[in-house]
Specification:
With 243 residues, this protein is an alpha+beta fold. It is built from seven helices and ten strands. Strands 3-2-1-8-4-5-6-7 form an eight-stranded mixed sheet, sandwiched between helices. A two-stranded antiparallel sheet has the order 9-10.
């Protein structure tokens, strides 16, 4: 009897030490379970049709503000080059072209970010947050209240976040949760397609805004050329640097 009890205890503690993957941990929440039930097959096909392993892939999200498009790129963890696997429309927008600089300005950020929080019980169905304000934002933004809590989410309302509707966020949230264990989910947000639209949006823009946008451009063009994520840092002046 003692031997059986000991074996049971060993089995219990061994199972308790087995790490749970991120998606499994998210499936304790009803909306994530619904997303998997309704969209799991579509998401799996989205990946397999691009020869991407659903168990080991990286996800990259790119927003183009003037087109109100959110591109979703993925690659096998063992590979370098990303493939475009889907594009979603913003279903609402706010503010003007240009970065977010303070709380309440209703601006969508522009720059290079990562997903830093998942919210499976969001007021906007499902959502995940980007790490605004980042180092560049903190250099230029209001020192007391730069704003925060910028999410990509469901529903169709916004005061600075990127909404794509409940049905689309089910897919994108599921993709991001599936990819998380393979590495960070990078999110780049641009005012326009920087290799084509800069001349148009620069008309009437201030010198400071043009300079900021110019620091975004190398990161955009590097990805367009190589389909690999650029190595981005922030200089002492707050502008982005790409190596």
């Amino acid at each position: 009897m003692k031997k059986i009890t000991l074996l049971c205890l060993i089995g219990f503690f061994t199972s308790a030490m087995i790490p749970v993957d991120f998606l499994t941990s998210q499936l304790q929440f009803q909306r994530v379970r619904v997303a998997k039930a309704q969209k799991g097959s579509k998401v799996t096909t989205m990946l397999s049709s691009n020869d991407i392993d659903k168990n080991a892939f990286n996800l990259f999200i790119r927003g183009i503000k003037d087109e109100q498009k959110l591109e979703v790129w993925a690659k096998n963890k063992s590979e370098n080059s990303y493939k475009l696997i889907n594009t979603y429309d913003f279903c609402a927008t706010t503010g003007e072209l240009g970065p977010k600089r303070r709380s309440g300005d209703k601006q969508m950020p522009e720059g290079f970010y990562k997903v830093d929080r998942f919210n499976p019980e969001s007021a906007y169905y499902l959502s995940f947050r980007i790490n605004y304000p980042n180092e560049s934002d903190l250099h230029f933004a209001d020192k007391l209240n730069p704003g925060d809590n910028i999410f990509i989410h469901g529903d169709c309302i916004t005061i600075g976040c990127i909404p794509i509707g409940d049905e689309n966020i089910k897919e994108l949230y599921l993709l991001a949760a599936m990819a998380k264990d393979s590495g960070p989910v990078n999110v780049h947000i641009f005012p326009t397609r920087m290799d084509k639209g800069m001349e148009t949006i620069s008309k009437g823009a201030s010198g400071d805004l043009k300079k900021f946008w110019s620091s975004l451009t190398p990161g955009y063009t590097s990805f367009e050329k190589n389909k690999t994520l650029p190595n981005v840092s922030v200089g002492s002046d707050g502008y982005y640097l790409v190596k």
